Amino acid sequence: MASDNTSPETPDPGTVRPGGRTARVRAAVLDAAGDALAEGGFAGLDLSEVARRAGVGKTTVYRRWGSTTALVADLLADMAEQSSPRSDTGALLDDLRANAHLVRTTLTDPRQGPLFRAVIAAATCDERTAHALHRFYEIRVAEWAPCVELAAQRGELPPDTDPHEVVRAVSAPLYHRFLLSGAPLDEEAAERAARAAAAAARAGAYRTTPGARCAIIEA
User: Could you tell me which residue ranges the HTH tetR-type domain spans (predicted)?
Assistant: First the structure.
């Protein structure tokens, strides 16, 4: 088991991106935490067991993270940074298809799917985990929002379209299937989500100008 050389004054998880041995330890611990979450859920997450899986001293894990909620928060921050970058195909529908495919692939992955279920379940009863989950989702939405902004610049969408709402409209029905309905989370579902979001955006459903959406509905 590795020795503990961590400084006693360790910053909050996620506030710095360490290098060298510290970075390797962090990566090993986060990987072990993800495996543990996927296998046993949040209730089964234990810092000592994570340390054993990662092959590091448990004192290092307790000193750096201090609690399972802090560890999950750091894991989500790392997942947000490591997730695939947005697409830039030059066409709104193709970009939204790429986003839908990424969401579907993540949620149906044998490891990532159970991991997300565990984190979402934990977020319903733990404020810190909920905050970390919300931050993860907003980082990913912000990553893809420029696809919508570029589409508006090309004239595919009204210029006052809210890009974040369009991206959320793609993933929302996929998360609904994943968590609530039990309906198949297949490529057809991803295609439908992308097409529906694109069609609604073109029709002006996500315009930010006061009264613009109401005018569309009344028309």
Answer: 23-83
Range of the domain at 39: 20-71
Assigned token pair, 132: 């970390």
Alpha helix positions (H), the chain: 20-40, 47-54, 58-64, 68-82, 92-108, 112-123, 127-154, 163-176, 187-202, 212-218
- Residue-level pLDDT at 202: 97
pTM, two decimal places: 0.80
Query: What's phi and psi for 66, nearest 5 deg?
Result: 80, -30
Q: What confidence score (pLDDT) does residue 63 get?
A: 94
pLDDT tens, residue by residue, 100-129: 999 999 999 999 999 999 999 889 888 888
DSSP 45: -
Same domain flag for 33 and 139: no
Tokens for 63, please give them: 């000193």
Give the residue from 139, 155, 159, 170 showing the smallest Cα distance to 212: 159
Give the CA distances from residue 34 to residues 3, 11, 71, 213, in Å, rounded to whole numbers and listed in that order.
23, 21, 10, 42
Residue 164 predicted with pLDDT over 60 = yes
- Evaluate whether 174 touches 180 at the Cβ level (below 8 Å): no
Are 37 and 114 within 8 A, CB to CB? yes
Confidence bin at 19 (pLDDT 50/70/90): low
